[in-house]
TrEMBL record:
Matching InterPro entries: EmrB-like, MFS, MFS_dom, MFS_trans_sf
Gene3D superfamilies in the record: MFS general substrate transporter like domains, Multidrug resistance protein D
Protein name: EmrB/QacA family drug resistance transporter
Organism of provenance: Caballeronia humi
Transmembrane residue ranges: 16-37, 57-76, 83-104, 144-165, 171-193, 205-224, 236-257, 278-298, 310-328, 340-356, 376-395, 407-424, 483-501
Length: 519
């Protein structure tokens, strides 16, 4: 308790550099694991002797446990201290990764993934808190720029690295790669931050709130993951999961707003900056993540790309993101963060509009150019919005605010993925129906096409089959274009949310809070 009123001074020199690298490594390792297993599911399923749809639980189990533990960061920080909790998360994450690689059966692997997701939860919010407390007030945006680079690049690197490891080594190594990274991050974190812990307060455990959180988040995540496979609301299972999630969420909100020691501080949503920043960031991230899944999937299923090639098409997104993030951090203290965020959202809208004009004969240059430009938007996406979200908060509320904001963002990422995959299938069916309607003897273009196929040696059934496969490919193309176009429109609309906030002008938005973040 003696620490309660202590404000730790910012780090300097080598300590600041090592501390930043340690925290960034931990975040990169964590975020990488949200996507590295995606392309390795066939290898894992085959090796463990289970069906691919059972293998997808490797992703779901991590996501559910992670989503539940992220919003608990504020409460856990009070009980254990932010440095002790961050260190524990890293060490336990390394142990969980080792267990995942050793898994001899699917149930063992799923249990290890649940453990891994649960201990990973506090890592991202606390990385923000520790970085903000390590930098001087005026350089808090620079701290956020370091943080955002790892958060944005890791989801892109995950599928590329996962695919290469699965093809060239063996799937357990997608988990084993975390071990040296985690050990290095843990040692460096202990060396730099061990004397900079926050005060510990033994708040009572909100068992009712925790139970409700587990129920509604778990139900929602499973519903989102299994919805497409079970045909959504035509399935009794999905309907029951939805009802459980909605009812448990309603009880959770009422309970947490009236509890004396809530497990999640929902009162943060009373603050205009927190609410506007969190919603704009989360919906934007949901669109970004949904498209991050959609584009490689379309390239592989309809354009004939391999998993590795599809991943490489996404790789240029990191070029400008890495180069410009420090620039954004440098200029943010002297600029209204709402202007930078607005510019970023307009760049995202431009990229998705460019993609909405793709055809089935799209070339590599046309695929990679919007991805390259998107990096410019990513450099101005996280930093100003996180700055707005945490603007004006006292240091002791930053872990809870960061945890809750990241929780909403992660949930929107999962929702975006489910909506985009389902909407693409639905729009493809609609377009296929419209295209096939034109396939009749009264349409001279169709008749001429069938005649040309006949002249090329196809009989009538082969010609019709070829036409249908062409229509299917074209329908998938039109469906994906619809979603790119819609994404562009939503990004423009989200700019209004950015401007309902009023970030405090105190050396970089949240910099005032940064000075006392380690209290």
């Amino acid at each position: 308790m003696s620490q309660a009123n202590v404000v730790h001074p910012p780090l300097e020199g080598a300590k600041l550099v090592i501390g930043t690298i340690a925290v960034s490594l931990a975040v990169f390792m964590n975020v990488l694991d949200t996507s590295i297993a995606n392309v390795s599911i066939p290898s894992i399923s085959g090796d463990l002797g289970v069906a691919s749809d059972q293998g997808t639980w490797v992703i779901t189990s991590f996501a559910v446990a992670n989503a539940i533990s992220v919003p608990l960061t504020g409460w856990l920080t009070q009980r254990f201290g932010q440095v002790r909790l961050f260190m524990s998360s890293i060490v336990l994450f390394v142990i969980a990764s080792w267990l995942c690689g050793l898994a001899p059966t699917l149930p063992f692997l799923l249990a290890a993934r649940v453990f891994q997701g649960a201990v990973a939860g506090p890592m991202i919010p606390l990385s923000q808190t520790l970085l903000l407390a390590s930098y001087p007030r005026a350089k808090a945006p620079m701290a956020l720029s370091m943080w955002s680079m790892t958060t944005l690049i890791a989801p892109v690197a995950g599928p590329i690295l996962g695919g290469w490891i699965s093809d060239n080594i063996a799937w357990p190594w997608i988990f084993y790669v975390n071990i040296p990274v985690g050990i290095a991050a843990a040692i460096a974190t202990f060396a730099i931050f061990r004397d900079r812990d926050s005060a510990i307060r033994k708040a009572p455990i909100d068992t009712v709130g925790l139970a409700l959180l587990v129920i509604w988040v778990g139900s929602l995540q499973i519903m989102l993951d299994k919805g497409k496979d079970l045909d959504w609301f035509n399935s009794t299972t999905i309907i029951v999961l939805t009802l459980i999630a909605v009812i448990a969420l309603a009880f959770f909100i009422v309970w947490e707003l009236t509890a004396e020691h809530p497990v999640v501080d929902l009162s943060l949503f009373k603050l205009r900056n927190f609410t506007g920043g969190t919603i704009a960031l989360s919906i934007g991230y949901g669109l970004y993540f949904g498209n991050l899944v959609l584009l490689p999937l379309w390239l592989q299923t309809d354009i004939g790309y391999t998993a590795t090639d599809a991943g490489l098409v996404m790789a240029p997104v990191g070029v400008f993101a890495i180069l410009l993030s420090p620039v954004t951090g440098k200029f943010l203290p002297r600029t209204d963060p709402r202007k930078i965020a607005t510019a970023a959202f307009l760049v995202f809208a431009l990229c998705f509009w460019m993609r909405s004009r793709y055809t089935t004969g799209v070339d590599t240059y046309s695929l990679m150019m919007p991805t390259l430009i998107q990096g410019i938007g990513m450099a101005g996406f996280f930093i100003p919005l996180v700055s707005i979200t945490l603007s004006g908060l006292p240091g002791h509320r930053i872990p809870a605010a960061s945890g809750l904001s990241n929780f909403v963002r992660i949930m929107c990422g999962g929702i975006g993925t489910s909506i985009f995959s389902t909407a693409w299938e639905h729009r493809s069916i609609v377009h296929h129906t419209q295209l096939v309607e034109q396939a009749n003897a009264y349409n001279p273009v169709f008749s001429n096409s069938i005649s040309q196929m006949g002249a090329a040696g196809f009989d009538q059934s082969q010609a019709y089959g070829l036409f249908n496969s062409m229509a299917t490919q074209q329908a998938a193309q039109l469906g994906v274009n619809d979603l790119f176009y819609l994404s562009a429109g939503i990004f423009v609309a989200l700019i209004g949310l950015i401007w309902i906030t009023k970030p405090e002008r105190s050396g970089g938005g949240d910099s005032a809070a940064a000075a006392s973040a380690a209290h």
